[in-house]
């Protein structure tokens, strides 16, 4: 019976054959232990010398790290194993011998591991992070599909910028200027006017020269947009979505979280509703905490967000930021011209902002005024302005950064471990 490691619990006391790589091995005179991986998981294979042919035992003793093999054996329960099962091996067939595999069980520097990212992905820790990332994506599709959203794919090449052109990668589009998208939001607003509730999931690019543990040059965003939805309801969708994703990971990635050493008691608290603090109150709070460097009208940096988040054991919404530090499309507060109907969702444990969202301006005249105030070309944004000309409605949306969310849920230190092949300020390889 051919099987994968993930399927082994279905075959207890039965013989199976699986294709695998040798993640590690150790042996004594009479027994050999092979740490096997096949992409679906990791399992230990045990070969007892007296139970197999001499040739099989010698192969098990001499096989090298990351060599590929076919292994035949009987599945057994093993309470000592994190997986809960092991394989009593009866045969090992060598497919390909790996020589001088560069990533050994010893410690390696970050730059070395990043240069070998194509191989580093094979490690148990990186495997666990990628499995959690996959579960977050799976749960995202499930949540939005179950709640009546339609998946829409905005373009990656755009002729305009939703948040100004200072952090864009420019390219030539035949005889025109084009940019790599920093957000699909404006296009999702158009989609929401056609389909009601929509979401996108795709790559975005920021030409921001930042080296912090929270930043990537290329990252993935989940961007829902909803017609006939105002500010408060938008926040409710966000907290329900994030809660749903965290609970899905807790349910379906227990082994991966254990591999990563994640304190799941902190994740178990992540259920809606989430606490909220206004920008005004956040400024007051930070002054009380000794942050004299921040003034009303300043944007928050990582230390400020972390200080605020530490007061809560759930993600916290910071609401109603000053108009002047937010993008042109955000709806003003009905009673205050100086703040807008927006919120950033700050993750606990120092992971920073994972969602930015707002109610969008739906008044044609006000949006046109904002375009001019931000010195944007009305002709370039003509199609966007027309969304307010033909049946405009109140609408809201948000964007969740996948990699920061993966970092928070897995507990890894740096976002470079949360994407298969990270693009950083000084890294375009591999």
From TrEMBL:
GO terms for molecular function: asparagine-tRNA ligase activity. Its main location: cytoplasm. It is found in: Cytoplasm. Residues 130-430 form the Aminoacyl-transfer RNA synthetases class-II family profile domain. The keyword Cytoplasm applies. It is an enzyme of class 6 (ligase). It catalyses: tRNA(Asn) + L-asparagine + ATP = L-asparaginyl-tRNA(Asn) + AMP + diphosphate + H(+). Its EC number is 6.1.1.22. Keywords: Aminoacyl-tRNA synthetase, ATP-binding, Cytoplasm, Ligase, Nucleotide-binding, Protein biosynthesis. It comes from the Bacteria. Pfam families: tRNA-synt_2, tRNA_anti-codon. The keyword Nucleotide-binding applies. Homodimer. NCBIfam families: asnS (TIGR00457), PRK03932.1 (NF003037), PRK05159.1 (NF003483). Belongs to the class-II aminoacyl-tRNA synthetase family. This is Asparagine--tRNA ligase. The gene is asnS.
């Amino acid at each position: 019976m051919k099987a994968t490691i993930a399927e082994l619990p279905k075959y207890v006391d039965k013989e199976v054959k699986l294709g695998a790589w040798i993640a590690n091995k150790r042996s004594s005179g009479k027994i050999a232990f092979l740490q096997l991986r096949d992409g679906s998981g990791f399992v230990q294979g045990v070969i007892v010398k007296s139970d197999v042919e001499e040739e099989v035992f010698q192969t098990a003793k001499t096989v090298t790290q990351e060599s590929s093999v076919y292994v035949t054996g009987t599945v057994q329960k093993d309470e000592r194993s994190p997986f809960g099962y092991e394989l009593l091996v009866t045969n090992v067939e060598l497919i390909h011998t790996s020589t001088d595999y560069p990533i050994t069980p010893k410690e390696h520097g970050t730059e070395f591991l990043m240069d070998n990212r194509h191989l580093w992905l094979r490690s148990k820790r990186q495997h666990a992070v990628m499995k959690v990332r996959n579960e977050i994506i799976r749960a995202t599709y499930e949540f939005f599909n179950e709640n009546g959203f339609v998946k829409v794919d905005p373009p990656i090449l755009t002729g305009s910028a939703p948040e100004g052109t200072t952090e864009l990668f420019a390219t030539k589009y035949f005889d025109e200027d084009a940019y790599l998208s920093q957000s699909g939001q404006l296009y999702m607003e158009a989609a929401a006017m056609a389909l009601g509730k929509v979401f996108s999931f795709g790559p975005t690019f920021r030409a921001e020269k930042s080296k912090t543990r929270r930043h990537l040059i290329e990252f993935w965003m989940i961007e829902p947009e909803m017609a006939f939805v105002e500010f408060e309801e938008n926040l409710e969708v966000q907290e329900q979505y994030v809660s749903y994703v965290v609970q899905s990971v807790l349910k379906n990635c227990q082994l991966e979280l254990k591999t990563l050493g994640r304190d799941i008691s902190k994740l178990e608290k992540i259920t809606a509703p989430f606490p909220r603090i206004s920008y005004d109150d956040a400024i007051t709070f930070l002054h009380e905490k000794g942050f004299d460097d921040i003034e009303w009208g300043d944007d928050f940096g990582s230390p400020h967000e972390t200080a605020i988040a530490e007061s809560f054991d759930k993600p916290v919404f910071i609401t109603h930021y000053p108009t002047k530090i937010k993008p042109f499309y955000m709806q003003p507060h009905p009673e205050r011209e100086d703040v807008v109907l927006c919120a950033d969702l700050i993750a606990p444990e120092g992971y920073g902002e994972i969602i930015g969202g707002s109610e969008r301006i739906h008044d044609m005249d006000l949006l046109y005024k904002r375009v001019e105030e931000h010195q944007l070309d009305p002709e370039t944004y003509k199609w966007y302005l027309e969304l307010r000309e033909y049946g405009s409605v109140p609408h809201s949306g948000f964007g969740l950064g996948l990699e920061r969310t993966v970092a928070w849920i897995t507990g890894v230190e740096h976002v470079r471990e949360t994407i298969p092949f990270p693009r950083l300020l000084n890294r375009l390889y591999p």
